[in-house]
Specification:
With about 190 residues, the chain is an all-alpha fold. It has one domain. It is about 70% helix and about 0% strand. Helix 3 packs across helix 5 and helix 4 crosses helix 5.
């Protein structure tokens, strides 16, 4: 049998798909929506998925090879899923490419904003970015600040937890994420 040099290894494809499924599961934990205020809408689910993918990609950037290859395969898998979802929603071929471009810009813009706030250790800045992007809020009244700060605490705890995970564990178990309900009600001392 001749092996196709341009085809990805099936075991690697399955591993990336399993990681992607686990990230999706983390982004769909009901407490994110019920306790931390992520809107349970198509847009809210996209934002939750982006947030969790960004957290895993941040971690993969810090790991030795083949983490960079896994990160690229994960991004490809995520965008293939988004493309498929748009088609399932009835978006035509012409519309898919335009929307995929907008989704990619949104994803990378959010990644840069989350990275900057997390790298700076700026929880207030992270809360503002999360309020705008994930919670779809511009106002800053006290109740909404609590939700945004609770979500920021969750994100910071998830980022710290991922930092303690090696590549083998990440691929075998997926991202180990904190329980979002622990962060409901506002800022904590995480």
């Amino acid at each position: 049998m001749i092996r196709n040099p341009f085809r990805r290894d099936n075991a690697r494809i399955r591993a990336i798909e399993a990681l992607h499924i686990r990230i999706n599961a983390g982004a769909r934990v009901p407490a994110l929506y019920l306790d931390l205020g992520v809107p349970d809408t198509v847009e809210g689910r996209f934002e939750a998925l982006c947030l969790h993918v960004v957290l895993v990609l941040r971690h993969l950037r810090r790991l030795p090879p083949p983490a960079a290859d896994i990160a690229q395969d994960l991004v490809n898998s995520v965008f293939e899923q988004l493309d498929s979802s748009l088609r399932e929603l009835g978006v035509g071929d012409m519309g898919v490419s335009k929307r995929m471009k907008k989704l990619a810009q949104a994803f990378y813009g959010r990644a840069a904003a989350y990275d900057a706030a997390l790298d700076a250790g700026d929880r207030d800045g992270l809360a503002v970015v999360l309020a705008r992007n994930v919670l779809a809020r511009e106002e800053t009244d006290a109740a909404r600040d609590r939700s945004a700060h609770g979500l920021a605490d969750y994100v910071a705890a998830a980022d710290a937890g991922l930092a303690a995970t090696d590549l083998d564990a990440l691929m075998a178990e997926g991202p180990v994420l904190p329980d979002p309900s622990r962060f409901a009600g506002g800022p904590s001392q995480v």
